[in-house]
Amino acid sequence: MRLSMDEIVNAVCLHFAERKGVKPTDVEVQLQWDEDYGYTAEVWVLGRSQYIVEANLLEAIERYMLTEYGRRVFREQIRLGLDDEIWADIAD
Known about the structure:
Layout: E1 2-3, H1 5-20, E2 27-34, E3 38-45, E4 48-52, H2 54-69, E5 78-82, E6 86-90
Antiparallel strand pairs: 1-6, 2-3, 3-4, 5-6
Helix pairs in contact: 1-2
Organism: Thermobacillus composti (strain DSM 18247 / JCM 13945 / KWC4)
Pfam family, one: DUF2653
InterPro entries: Uncharacterised_YxcD
């Protein structure tokens, strides 16, 4: 199964909304890839910015897969990739 960049953004929004006690619409996400840092994202919650690393992205995807698809997946089953946009492959 492959998650699109939009689904990864939704996963991060839902994850941070739950953690910060805000609505998902109060969260904005900008996914990034960098040679030095790998996959990261800048997350704004109610106007406050923070950067998250790949481990945080994987945690959000794990939770999203459980809540949205009813599938329990582990980090080693998730592979992030980049073509024109960032995607995540989920192994069975």
